[in-house]
Amino acid sequence: MNLQQVTFEASYGTAPQLPASDLPEIVFSGKSNVGKSSLINKFFNRRNLARVSAVPGKTTTVNFFRVEDVRFADLPGYGYAKRSKAEMERWSGLMDGYFSGGRNIALVVQLLDMRHAPTGDDKVMLNFLTETGLPFAVALTKCDKLKSGERKKQSAYFADLPALAAAKAVIETSAETGEGMDALKELIEKTLAQ
């Protein structure tokens, strides 16, 4: 798969707008401010493919990108408290519509900040992925922000975390250094080949 050939397809803000799922989809999911847009940009080696912001909750739509015969979905971050009730309801409906819409989901890449234990919202998402049997991998973001000893401690913590038992892989990643991008690409290609 040539990641350099990525193209932005479209953004959708409500579930009824979502197009039919006619290609296998790789889904990027995670809480607000986990570094999803930065990771996507690093993964595709593009600066501004996904909009990056210092303000949490910037991605509010499902954004689709395409590489060859594969669609990549960038989901809006969850857990951002400073949203209106109407905005939270729209987000909830969009996520429910996405995951219950019979989509051809090949893999969910669930992002977790390596520096911290999973939040309550992260645990809800991990339980959902496990209970529904959706294939998922975990990308531990911001690994470059940890000192060596702290990183070893966090690696051991996540390796023993029961909520990650069903994950196909747990990959330590950095949008700064590019660490983990090759492993992520390899996992995605292997998944698509099955």
Summarize the structure.
The protein has helices spanning 36-43, 85-99, 120-132, 148-159, 181-193; strands at 7-12, 25-30, 62-67, 70-74, 105-113, 136-141, 170-172.
What does this protein structure show overall?
The structure is a single chain. The chain is α/β, with parallel strands linked by helices. It has one domain (3-193): Rossmann fold (3-Layer(aba) Sandwich), CATH 3.40.50.300. The chain has helices spanning 36-43, 85-99, 120-132, 148-159, 181-193; strands spanning 7-12, 25-30, 62-67, 70-74, 105-113, 136-141, 170-172. It has a seven-stranded mixed β-sheet, with helices on both faces. The two termini are 15 Å apart. The relative contact order is 0.18.
Q: What is the radius of gyration? A: 16 Å
Enumerate the strands of the largest sheet in spatial order, edge to edge or round the barrel.
1-3-4-2-5-6-7
Q: Which structural class fits the helix and strand makeup?
A: alpha/beta
Helix content: 25-40%
Q: What is the global morphology?
A: globular
Main sheet?
A: 7 strands, mixed
Strand residues, percent: 15-25%
CATH topology title: Rossmann fold
Give, in order, the helices and strands.
Answer: EEHEEHEHEHEH
The CATH homologous superfamily corresponds to P-loop containing nucleotide triphosphate hydrolases
Number of domains: 1
Gross CATH architecture: 3-Layer(aba) Sandwich
Mean pLDDT figure? 89
